[in-house]
Design goal:
By secondary structure, this protein is α+β, with helices and mostly antiparallel strands. It has a single domain, classed as OB fold (Dihydrolipoamide Acetyltransferase, E2P) (Beta Barrel). It has 2 helices and 5 strands; from the N terminus they run βββββαα. The strands form 2 sheets. Strands 3-4-5 form a 3-stranded antiparallel β-sheet, covered by helices on one side. The protein has a two-stranded antiparallel ribbon with strand order 1-2.
Length: 71
Amino acid sequence: MIMLTKLNGDTFTLNAIYIEQVQSFPDTTVTLTSGRKVVVKEAECEVVQKAAAFYRRISLFPLTQTESEED
């Protein structure tokens, strides 16, 4: 789960597994797998970083790369 902020200042927790797409229009818009769109105050890169950190915490992505993965 990641913490995000709506444009009105309300914070909410989003299950990052359901993020399909993040875009800047210029406001950052998070599109979920359900098709629902949420506009947030955080920059696109910040949302991506939070989602990646969440994936690492739940072991969806490895924490470190092995030498064979780098080649």
